Amino acid sequence: MAAPRIDDHLHDAVVEQFCFDAERGRLTLVLWEKPEPLWQTNEVVRKRLVLSGIRNGAAVAAVQQLVEAAWRRTPDRELGYRVDRFDFDPALPSRPLDLHLRLAIDHLPPLRIHCAKFTMQPVE
Q: Could you tell me if residue 1 is inside a domain?
């Protein structure tokens, strides 16, 4: 059985929420992006990415602390951080329930996430 596909690499999606629940080993990101062409619409598409069964929680928690520190420094509701990349880590093989993912977000150290699964859903 093959690892699931990543159909959306989320490039340039804006991070609205980054929340790691260490006890449950779950990272939830809420993201938004404007569909192409940008100049013809004010529509915003919101998505929720959930990564669960995270085995390297310390690395994810460290990034969570950086995000929280940045939010404390800004009066804005949004940081404006954008996803650069969400994909499988080519250095490590992934299989069902044993996924090795990369998540790169502007202004944060790149994350390598070892987890059981991920889901991406629209937010209404």
A: no
